[in-house]
Amino acid sequence: MTSEPTLISSVRRALRLLETVGAQERPVSAKQLARQTGLRLPTTYHLLRTLVHEGYLRKLDDGYVLGDSVDLLGHPPRNQLLLNRIRPILTALRDELGAAAYVSIFDDGEIRILDIVDSASAPRVDLWVGCTEAGHATALGKCVLRELPDHQLRDYLARHPLVDLTPRTATKPQELRRRLAAGPIMLDREEYSLGTACAAVPIYDGARPGSLSVSVPVGKLDRLERGGQRLLAASEQINRAMSLTI
Questions:
Q1: Does the reported pTM lie above 0.85?
Q2: Could you say which residues form the signal peptide (predicted)?
């Protein structure tokens, strides 16, 4: 008769936590991890502290992501590696400008938000229409569209109607193209949501274009205009961080 192997329960629990964090595209909280793994919350916190200490997880403001030590085990999802490197840049930008910060990327023909860093004093925009449908009306979306080769832009516009979200939204392709010609900082003056202003600059993940953007109430638009150089400097930091993430 073959005897059952001796298993160490704490190791198994830690591995379940790593697997669960690794399956997420965004940071996941301790409470969410406890629910998803069926562990008691105190046990979850104890294991998470150990995994963070050993470098297998990293604790961000809104949850946990895989840490650098996971590189020794294989290849974690690229978006998590990017998040691990760019989150401190976004946090610093939010704190300096007093504005919510966003990173988006053009992925498989769609504009997708990779991360958002906000706070009680710098809340995010209510994304009542997703960026996949409203790229023409947001600073972050227009910034990505401006970077696309013409054939990709034409393909995107053929698949995405220019929906009228506010009286300021561009609903005709020629008007959108005129707005895309602006630069180097792309602005959204209440095109997506009345009362909200956004500014965005391009970033690149290899060949994939993306954007770094910030949002404020429209009455504070001058804050974004004054912070333009800071936004450009942060985009250069993100480009360097992305180039290091293989």
A1: no
A2: none
